[in-house]
Each structure stands twice: as C-alpha cells, then as structure tokens.
Amino acid sequence: MKRLILASSSPRRKQLLEMAGLRFDILVSDIDEQIQRNESPEQIVQSLAYQKAKAVQKTNPGAYVIGADTIVVYNRQVLGKPKTKQEACEMLRLLSGKTHHVFTGVAIIAPEQETVFVERTAVTFWDITDEDIFEYIETGEPMDKAGAYGIQGKGALFVKRIEGDYFSVVGLPLARTVRELKKIGWK
Ligand SMILES: Cc1cn([C@H]2C[C@H](O)[C@@H](COP(=O)(O)OP(=O)(O)OP(=O)(O)O)O2)c(=O)[nH]c1=O
Q: Terminus-to-terminus CA distance in the chain, angstroms?
C-alpha cells in the first residue's frame, strides 16, 4: 500500500475519500493561493490544486499527494468563498433562477508521475427569494463554500437540475480521482 496524502483542510473532501474506503493521511501546507489574471476557470482550479499538492509533496516525496480546488462561475464571474454575509447574499441572488458551472481541479503528484484534471458540472437553481437567502445565510452554511452554497446541505433546496458529477460540486470528483490514482500506479 503506497502512502496517500490528501492535501486539503476541507472536511467534505475527507468524507468523500473515506466514503470510497481509501486509507490516507491529511496534511495541509499553507500556500498563498496565487491566481494570474486572465486565467480561465479551468486553469485557475488546476493551478491551485497543483500548488496545494506540490507544497505537501515537497516534504513527502515518496507519497501520492492529492490537491483540489473548487470555484463557481456564473456569467464569467468567478465566485470563491464569500468573505461576508453581504457577499454571500450577492452571490446567491446572482445564482437564483440561473445555470452556473462548478469547476473542480484535481492534482495528483506521485513519486515519478503527476496528473492534473478538471471537472465541470452545470447546476441550475430555482428562483429563490431574498427571504430564502436570508434564512439560509443565518444557518452559517454558505460561509466556507465556493458560490455560497452547499449542495450536500440545506443548499440542496435551491437546486433544480444538475448535469455532471455531483461529487465534484461537493469538492472532489470521486470516481475520476480514484481512477486517475490507479492509472499512475497507486494501490
Ligand atoms: C459549490 C459547493 C462548494 N463546496 C465547497 C467545496 C470546497 O471545500 C469549498 C471551496 O474551497 P476550496 O478552496 O476549493 O477548498 P478549501 O479551502 O475548503 O480546502 P483546501 O483548500 O484546504 O483544499 O467549497 C461545497 O461543500 N458544496 C458546494 O455545493
């Protein structure tokens, strides 16, 4: 069994890998998330996923290290995690009644190989009222989540339709991640 490290502080990513029955450690190294201007959503999430994995792999060169990053994009606007309730409210108003895309980039760095990929999932919201939004924000759920909602929580009530990998919206495209791990020799 080769050592597997999840380079993420996200409790959702941890839960998903546990659900798949994988054995792994969690190690997080604080990176200063660098985004270049003019990068596409695909480039942003892949680059941040790679930076997170690389920072941990440097001090654990024998391990397989997974890094990931998730953003929400609507109408070319990139929505990360809201910093304030006000920002969460603005994000949810923007997403109401519309289709947005969730991009999750994943980087896997192994001793002699590395792979980076991205998944895009389209999510359509029902029309949501300001009252729904205020109530939701009071639950505290939006604050640590890209796009200010959690599809796996009460945010599920906003979702009319999804096309693509559900788990990628939660933070990690699970099946593809495990398939790519196996492809580069992890077992
Ligand atoms: C859209 C959406 C996002 N999210 C979460 C997934 C990610 O944890 C978070 C986006 O932030 P990220 O920067 O991708 O990850 P993180 O800061 O939580 O963890 P780390 O950088 O240490 O890996 O939003 C949900 O949980 N549900 C959702 O429906």
A: 6
